Amino acid sequence: MSEATQQADADxxxxxxxxxxxxxxxxxxxxxxxxxxxEDPRRNxxxxxxxxxxxxxxxxxxxxxxxxxxxxxxxNAGRPSPWRRRGVLGGLVAASAAGIVGALLFPGxxxxxxxxxxxxxxxxxxDGSVMxxxxxxxxxxxMATQAREVELAEGEAWFEVARDATRPFVVASGxxxxxxxxxxxxxxxxxxxxxxxxxxxxxxxxSEEDQGQRVRLSAGQSARINDRAIVHYETTKASAVDRxxxxxxxxxxxxxxxxxxxxxxxxxxxxxxxxxxxxxAAGERFDGLFRINDPEGFAGAVRDALDLSVNTDDPRFIRIxxxxxx
Length: 326
Prior knowledge:
This protein is of the alpha+beta class. The chain has nine helices and 18 strands. The strands form three sheets. Strands 1, 2, 3, 4, 5, 6, 7, 8, 9, 10, 11, 12 and 13 form a 13-stranded mixed beta sheet that branches. It has a three-stranded mixed beta sheet with strand order 15-18-17. Strands 14-16 form a two-stranded antiparallel ribbon. Strand 1 (103-106) and strand 2 (110-114) form a beta hairpin. Helix 1 (3-21) packs across helix 5 and helix 3 (42-55) packs across helix 5. It is globular.
């Protein structure tokens, strides 16, 4: 792609973001945008980066300071002109090497993020909050004027929420809701419900099926909620919350964990899956701190400590079972 073509695409992306940021976005605009994106697969990432730059606070600060006021005429009094921002964006996009891989922009519906198996990603949000997305997760973020909304479809994320009394920060997963009250917390979607762990501040959580039954969790507390009720409420084990969130440091922290649950944890992060082939061995309990990408190390430790057989012949699986005695 020539430099002129790159610049033309950067300018076009800036115009698209400005149009999306205006109040008159229509279905016809969306269809036109899709056609433009379909012409070159690289434009999706370009558009996403441009939107991230558009929403970056420093751009607004530059505009407020009037640094661009002499370059182009404003259109809307009291609101930064999209075309002023376009000039900033063109230069920033050309200079930016930062990519936002695994994210898709949905005009009017926010930005969707997906992490692959073994991928942990830290994502700053435009309101100053930061989310750390765990392996194999899918979620969508929408920043509106009156609310900050996250829809967790799969996996887990930890949120460090910036205070904003005018816009509640709510994470939804199925029918379960968790609303931050100036805090840091994680939400994990499990097969039998949603787990909420609080590391700072206070979080209120409930199910849409029974909004009258709400629980407030403070730092070190956790709860598991299904569509109908709060099924587990832990109040006194801050260390357990820290262990459950060891993935933020790339670790798995086991403390009396059954081999079956430990295998599930490693399998979240690795293509090579651990199989506990012996149901009797699955209930054995184990302690230890392991790197999330080292299922072989975990299997070796289990073999030595519990006198179990570990078979690594198949590169897709690590099979653990009891020794066959002759």
